[in-house]
Predict the 3D structure of the following.
Amino acid sequence: MQQDVQGKVDSRAMREVNRSIVLDIIRRGGKVSRTDLAKRSTLTKPTVSAIVDDLIARGIVQEVGFGKTVATGGRRARLLEFNDASAAYLGLRFGVHTTTVAVADARGEVRAIRETPTIAGDPHASVRSALGLLDGALEEAGLPRARLESVGVTVPGMVDTRSGTVAFAPNLGWNDVPIRNLLQQALELPVIVHNVTNAGAIAEGRVGAAKGARSYVWVYVGHGLGAGIVIDGQLFSGTKGFSGEIGHCPIGDEGPLCSCGLRGCLETLASGKAIERIAAEAVRGSEPTTLSSHSAPIDASVVLDAARAGDAVSQRILRGVGQHLGVGLSYLINVLDPELVVLGGRVMEASEYILEGARASVARHTLRSSKVEIVASTLGDRAGLMGSVIAAMDQSVRSYRIVATAERMA
Amino acid sequence: MQQDVQGKVDSRAMREVNRSIVLDIIRRGGKVSRTDLAKRSTLTKPTVSAIVDDLIARGIVQEVGFGKTVATGGRRARLLEFNDASAAYLGLRFGVHTTTVAVADARGEVRAIRETPTIAGDPHASVRSALGLLDGALEEAGLPRARLESVGVTVPGMVDTRSGTVAFAPNLGWNDVPIRNLLQQALELPVIVHNVTNAGAIAEGRVGAAKGARSYVWVYVGHGLGAGIVIDGQLFSGTKGFSGEIGHCPIGDEGPLCSCGLRGCLETLASGKAIERIAAEAVRGSEPTTLSSHSAPIDASVVLDAARAGDAVSQRILRGVGQHLGVGLSYLINVLDPELVVLGGRVMEASEYILEGARASVARHTLRSSKVEIVASTLGDRAGLMGSVIAAMDQSVRSYRIVATAERMA
């Protein structure tokens, strides 16, 4: 996510940096005066005033009355405040069953949410259907369309983030869909596309269980299985945006056929659909289980409910899935050495049994298990949508810093 | 490897950046005049002159005669050149059997190498023994001890790079050894410690098969198995410096006991010691093999030689090891989505059979196999030592750039 501004420090770059410092203080700091800003930024008062005048002219900052009389006497200072309505961001989540549209304000607070069924196999129709909800959502949010600055999109599948193309989303029936282009043509705004695991990882780090962690892995256990990776505060998407595909790591040459066309994939043993397949087998078995009272096909949520209600077969299914999941987590831990692993997605919302199985399995398969914490997401199923909103904001709000790098320019 | 210099761009930071730009041009560019430098850096001539005067005073740059008369007439320009002898760097590789000392000049060219047996289980004695070779190596290199700027150390084991401690190096018999402190006390110089996979990855990217690649994995197949990871041009060592431990990824609950104390580790099936164990089993089998003419224990190099000489059993052993190695590579590829995988280490120096098995296995276990190239190292067994020298240089030579980051300061 980092990019070079330029090799040489010139005055334009300095202005950009100083502007972002002043804006950061106003955004975080509540009501502040120009004098406060100069003190806290260590910039000169004329520099601060020029930046503030520009921010006011653009509607990003507003004046909101006067501060207390200063101790040395003289005029009372005008106070400045960040204008929450100065920008709007659009988050779009294309889920397997439901497409969700969220409109957030300049602080990233979601003000309106709308839903519509996903039209499987037809990305154009799905986009049209989602955009049909936009005006209503903007109205509910109290934000004019002209303030929309950028769009974040989340898709369950393999996304080439650079080109904004969905390479392969079997559960949506999408193949090589240029989703960024489709939306840019319709909205004439910058669009950033992430897969659901990367979006979840972003959101969990900003407002969820990974807040404060510099390097962590966010594991999505839903219909499928995948991981979003954050390294040193930055999302790591791999060379082509295909990182974190632990669902397709082999854990044997045999096993059920995976949706990707390979055999032996971890996803066939540790995912929502694995739970459903194993539950169907259990119902045909001899051991009594409350799952038998449900008509086929049995949804993963039925197994989660049955386990919590005390059904021993369901509990065992989930512990077994957790153990296989733990094997996948041990790959991530051995390869990445993260601070923290967060388990998110629909299936993890309600399963202490999976968590228990996963922790036991990780302890058996890593050298330093005790040092890597494994916790459940605190965002639940909202993580992907929130990640899409945050990604949209990050597209247009930038902070700057200077780094020293050991890498030669040669 | 990146670190913040400061949040605000001030004139000191600008001087640092400009100085590194001028020095980079001189280091790369052969003989240049001050006028050339001003043109190529787009800095003013007085700025360039002040920087050059300082570099000359410090002995980093030297004047070397005159250029051609300039077209517009006037004085001939003094030419400037980087002084190769202005600094010396020390590389130390503690290998399982041999400790190697290398002295390099200011360009990183290795000018002298000395070796001594590693004293297993005694880090203090190993350090004393290595440092006993230093004066002779410096003399051979023609570099005075006062020019030594920093030290790079490579160890086969788990290294906490931040504290410079070797947490666990079973093949050296080292446990919690503060190797950086030991060397800093003896030499009073900055010391950087890497494990052999990270050092190999650094070297391969700078001067080997991964040159030009931004994101790649360097896999070490020696006595053990591990990986060094480079992401976007930077070494990625994980939170505690323990990344890339693919040797201890589980590929089953059973299997031989690993040196780490766990069972089912990939290293027990894909490494030099795996080759040796499987070869010993093959000799006891019924199929004829030239390995039978060697006395036990059979070294991995014997199997590599026998395979090249046409022994079918040896070839099959190596292909099988390659297939298991490929499973490990598929974990790395699925998790990291690298541009390139480079296979290095003693065992890979001579085995097309392992490479063949590994490529076939990766093709079977990844979604995008055709797009990730898998190649053999071009540095062979020298990669670790060269990496230690490069790491030492990187400690003292820094380049600067400004980056924009999507990450908030909040």
Q: What stands out?
A: Residues 220 and 345 of chain B are 5 Å apart (CA to CA). Chain B has three domains: 11-82, 87-202+386-396, 211-378. Residues 87-202+386-396 of chain B form a domain with the Nucleotidyltransferase; domain 5 fold (CATH 3.30.420.40). Chain B touches chain A through 81 residues (CB under 8 Å).
